[in-house]
Write a structure and sequence with these properties.
The complex is a heterodimer of chains A (about 350) and B (about 425). Chain A has about 350 residues and is mainly beta. Chain A is built from three helices and 32 strands. Chain A has helices at about 5-20, 25-30, 50-65; strands spanning about 70-75, 80-85, 90, 95-100, 100-105, 110-115, 120, 125-135, 135-140, 145-150, 155, 160-170, 170-175, 180-190, 220, 225, 230-235, 235-240, 240-245, 250, 255, 260-265, 270, 275, 280, 285, 290-295, 295-300, 305, 310-315, 320, 325-340. The N and C termini of chain A lie far apart (about 90 Å). With about 425 residues, chain B is α/β, with parallel strands linked by helices. Chain B has 14 helices and seven strands. Chain B has helices at about 5-35, 65-75, 95-105, 125-135, 155-160, 180-205, 220-225, 235-245, 265-295, 300-310, 315-330, 340-355, 360-370, 380-400, and strands at about 55-60, 85-90, 115, 140, 165-175, 215-220, 250-260. In chain B, strands 3-2-1-4-6-5-7 form a seven-stranded mixed beta sheet, with helices on both faces. The chains are: A mainly beta (about 350), B alpha/beta (about 425). The interface between A and B is large, with 48 and 51 residues.
């Protein structure tokens, strides 16, 4: 083999090595065989707005098997302090289990979860991470709950409190200034209750002779479209631009707008309202459908969304603003903040 | 020869521009998925008023997987009185019929539909058309037989129809057997790029997310009004997507409605599958390109995306011709002025069409999914580049031949294998 042959061989080897460099991670991956598992899918997942609370409840019982009067330790959940009716200090750093009916003094601070099997009342300006109550739960004014609250019974939240996520198996009263991200109640009421409708009697029946909601869409390609005052529409409506529904209008069908939707006072919508823009619902309206906005939602006073027989959702990517005296059956969710004004 | 060289040069130039356009498109999708505003699907809506749903499962000789999917579906959380399950036995000659009948005895909402007579032509479009005629549901949900639907997926798919503009909904497909070998892992990476980035970005940007024919749902009345599925088209899913948009409906993409599927574990099976898809997709291209361009329901952006999407399975053929052109130009000594551009062609086309999702798209999708170790396999997609170019090109020529053929094409079934139930 002469020097040229050796040089050629060296070049060839060099090229082969250079070509193999990008394959080095592949060779390692084949040898290693890590990260080949399928992405996890929860095959048993069912949507439940109280899932966190139920899961926590189970976890709590599994971890402690609580016996009142004892201080327990759990490897999973840490230390648990059991408290009776009297609160000796204002700062609790461990998880607290409250025995019996209790009233938490003003300005108390709970840095972990608070669990109660009885009625529980918080004073004003308290702070807690989580509150889980089996019975009635009352929060005073200007409380701050960082994660969530849940009750099997009614929940009342005082003025200017922040509750983040709240779920209740019964009525949830929210006073003025309350802010939230997710609510679930039967129903969610803002401020003092008004006599909301329990069912659709007398509303659907008066139009029983008219055709029901059909799938023939009314397409409106205009940038702005108005359903004039007093219109009764019996079909689903899709608009490419803003939609204005003037007062005293009735729509028996779904509404989709690729812009904003404004619904005038005293209107009745028997269908879903879906908007790429914002949704504004006027006073004294009744919507038997879901409201879904990729912008914000504003609901004015004496308006009702859904009924106990037809519970619906109000979902918004941005703000949800509720006036006082609004009833929602039974779910609200926002990616940003919701507020009672 | 004097005429050929300029033609080849012009072809090469135009082709490089088209490929670059695709690359820009995918770059925009990837950027949107990483940094853009994500469009909310409807899965957060809680509503007790749900429509009647029929789940349709086309089956031909599916005895290895039939029990698995039926077991999964009977455990669905969708209200039983609003759910009907129609497994379609499409001329099976194995034990599929007996399995379906045994489930029908146990569960009154499972109503098998047997297509056994010679008058009933086999194939998925024919099966779906027949099922629609007997289905009670206003919404049809479709799963292929090798899929494993989770308990909540029917609700997640169906909730999208609260939007009156939505005509079809598509969920996300995950590869269940991705750990089997390198092929299945690569397919999972590719799928991830296709769903997590491509589909979601198109949904975000209000373009044309694609209905994929399985883990999807559509409005029965709307499809019946459009004339059902064309038995001559092998890609009934792509056809439905275009039909929907041409009739004013939209397709919604539900990224969180995830379902496992079983992918081919052998390259031969994958080659057949990709060739069939390419054939079907190009059939749709021939049929719907002009209506797409002239549609009154679509704006310019949607039309542009629709055109780029409809040509996805044509491009590898054009690329193949592009490479041939460059070889001819090189051998004839006419490539020197194109040297830089040709180099660009190879870089761009390899990045954009070495697979059905460019490398950067696969990388970002798997980063979002939290699966980074498997990305070490990305260099292997250079091999896919050649593999896909070959079989997609063959599929394209099959579609060209179909233009002159009157008979319905024969369906080729993907091979299944029995596996243990792992996700209970």
């Amino acid at each position: 083999m002469n020097s040229i042959d050796i040089l050629l061989l060296e070049y060839t080897l060099g090229v082969i090595i250079l070509m193999l460099i990008p394959l080095a991670p592949v060779i390692y991956a084949v040898w290693d065989r890590k990260g080949y598992e399928p992405l996890p899918v929860n095959m048993k997942y069912t949507k439940d707005p109280r899932a966190i609370a139920k899961y926590f409840d189970q976890y709590f019982h599994d971890s402690f098997g609580v016996k009142p009067g004892e201080i327990l330790n759990s490897k999973k959940l840490g230390k648990l302090e059991v408290v009776g009716e009297t609160f000796h200090r204002s700062l609790y750093k461990d998880m607290v289990y409250i025995v019996g009916k209790a009233k938490v003094p003003d300005r108390s601070r709970f840095e972990r979860e608070v669990i109660s099997r009885d009625e529980l009342e918080f004073g004003n300006r308290c702070y807690a991470r989580v509150i889980k109550s089996q019975k009635k739960l009352i929060l005073g004014e200007e409380n701050c709950i960082v994660r969530w609250i849940d009750s099997e019974s009614t929940i009342t939240v005082g003025r200017y409190s922040h509750i983040n996520i709240a779920s209740s198996m019964s009525t949830m009263h929210l006073e003025k200034g309350v802010s939230f991200r997710r609510l679930y109640g039967y129903p969610v009421l803002t401020s003092h209750a008004f006599s909301f409708r329990k069912n659709l009697e007398g509303i659907r029946e008066e139009h029983i002779d008219k055709p029901s909601i059909d799938e023939n869409l009314l397409y409106v390609p205009d940038k702005k479209y108005t359903l004039t005052k007093g219109t009764i529409l019996f079909r689903s409506l899709v608009t490419q631009g803003h939609l204005i529904i003037e007062q005293n209008t009735k729509v028996f069908g779904n509404i989709k707008s690729n812009g904003d939707v404004e619904v005038g006072d005293n209107s009745f919508i028997d269908g879903n309202i879906i908007a790429e823009g914002s949704i504004k619902i006027g006073k004294n309206c009744f919507v038997v459908g879901n409201m879904f906005s990729r912008a914000s939602i504003k609901i004015d006073s004496y308006t009702q969304i859904g009924t106990s027989e037809h519970p619906k959702s109000v979902i918004s990517k941005k703000m949800i603003t509720l006036a006082e005296h609004v009833a929602i059956f039974n779910y609200l969710l926002t990616d940003k903040t919701g507020e009672v004004k | 020869m004097e005429l050929v060289i300029p033609v080849l040069k012009i072809y090469l130039l135009i082709f490089i521009i088209i490929v670059a356009l695709y690359m820009i498109r995918h770059f925009i999708f990837t950027y949107n998925r990483l940094f853009g505003e994500q469009k909310l699907y409807y899965q957060d809506i809680l509503d007790k008023d749900v429509p009647m749903v029929t789940v349709v499962i086309p089956m031909k000789n599916e005895e290895l997987v039939a029990k698995q999917i039926l077991d999964r579906l009977v455990s669905s959380d969708y209200p039983r009185e609003k759910l009907e399950i129609i497994p379609i036995n499409d001329h099976s000659d194995d034990g599929t019929k007996e399995i379906l009948e045994s489930y029908a005895v146990k569960y009154d909402h499972i109503r098998p539909y047997h297509r056994l007579s010679e008058d009933e032509k086999p194939g998925k479009p024919n099966s779906l058309n027949d099922a629609m005629n007997v289905a009670k549901g206003e919404i049809i949900v479709v799963f292929d037989a090798d899929y494993q639907p989770p308990d909540g997926i029917i609700r997640e798919l169906v909730v999208g129809f609260k939007d009156p503009e939505v005509g079809a909904v598509m969920g996300r497909v995950l590869v269940e057997n991705c750990g089997t070998n390198m092929l299945t892992m690569m397919l999972e990476l590719e799928r991830s790029g296709g769903y997590q980035v491509d589909q979601q970005a198109r949904y975000n940007m209000d373009l044309i997310p694609q209905y994929g024919g399985t883990v999807g749902a559509y409005r029965k009345e709307a499809v019946l009004k459009m004339g059902g599925f064309d038995p001559k088209v092998l890609a009934e899913d792509t056809e439905l997507t275009y039909k929907m948009y041409l009739n004013g409906w939209h397709v919604a993409y539900a990224n969180r409605a995830e379902c496992y599927e079983e992918m081919p574990e052998e390259w031969v099976g994958r080659a057949k599958q990709i060739r069939r898809w390419a054939r079907g997709h190009n059939q749709v291209m021939f049929k719907y390109l002009v209506p797409l361009l002239t549609s009154r329901y679509l704006n310019f952006r949607k039309k542009l995306d629709g055109v780029l999407l409809i040509f996805v399975y044509t491009l590898p053929t054009l690329l193949f011709l592009g490479i041939l052109s460059s070889v001819v130009l090189f051998l004839s000594g006419n490539l020197e002025i194109f040297a830089g551009i040709v180099f660009l062609l190879f870089i761009v086309s390899l990045a954009a069409f070495g697979n059905f999702a460019p490398f950067f798209q696969i990388g970002v999708a798997n980063f979002i999914d939290g699966r980074t170790k498997a990305l070490r396999l990305i260099p292997l997609f250079a091999f896919n580049f050649v593999f896909y170019m070959l079989y997609v090109s063959l599929g394209f020529w099959d579609a060209v031949k179909d233009l002159f053929r009157k008979s319905e094409p024969e369906w080729d079934k993907t091979k299944r294998r029995q596996r243990e139930e792992r996700y209970e």
